Write the structure tokens for this entry.
Amino acid sequence: MATATLKSYLSSLMQNTQGTEIEIRTENLLLPYSLYLEKVHYDFTEYQSNTSQLIYCLASKCEVEINNKTFYLKAGNILLIEKDTDYTIRVSDKNAIIVKFKLDNDFSWQKQLEQVDANTPNEQRLSTLFLEKLNQDRAFLFTTTSVMWGSQNLKGIIQDYLNNVAFNGTIGLELLKIIILRNLREQNFKSNEVKESTFKDEALDQYIDQHYNDISLTQAAKYFGFNRNYFSTMVKEKTGKSFVEHVDERRMKEARRLLAKPNVSLLAKPNVSLKEIIETIGYSSKSFFYKKFKHYYGLTPAEMRKRLFREAHINLK
């Protein structure tokens, strides 16, 4: 059944019916969920639900209020509502098609995600993000669009439900779980946008100050809660310098500070002392350090040391 045909059929079910909520009946009474349609009504209608629900905006828009927080759903958006949560909903557009999945009594969105193995730091972060928002708001909104994978598969679940195909309940329930994980992964970009807006250059400088001698892009991205590649791009766009350039700059400043200290005896033991400086600031190659230093200051370490000592009136002899 094509999307246009699905919309037309669901719209026809809402014609000449009473009430604000219509159950979509099926011959299979043993499915793990039931489907309902929300009719157009210009005032908020209250529902008291003891089951977990999924509200899918197939067309147009609607508003859902939970604990004084309003969720604005547009076409393709998916709202998860945890069990034992009261909510109100308003559907003010006559073209709206709002499908509600009501899960079995023992189903819980929180339980579903807690049963998933989060093996990587990013997976753990996404799981934590989801569970914290779900516990805080009693709901979680996925701002997916109609053409995204999750939305397309929800339409498929609805079509299988209407056609009562074999195993549609088992496959549908598993697909719902996968859709949530897939959407959560894609929602990560939205999460990054929110965090990016609050990301400060000062925080990056402070982190590098504390870790410049043993630091990596991967570790820094994990610390700030971003994907490695996303973090690298964001730093470059926000500061005009790459992450590596920030680290090299901090290391060069520390090298200059150490070169200015008289107790670093470069004159007596130049190789040993340079090795100590190189190791202290986090480089492993002497030639690489020399190249970076000369590029940054226009002087070799030895030339810089002589100039610093001369400026400080320190006798080199």
User: Anything to note?
Assistant: The mean pLDDT is 87. The two ends are 91 Å apart (CA to CA). The chain has twelve helices and ten strands.
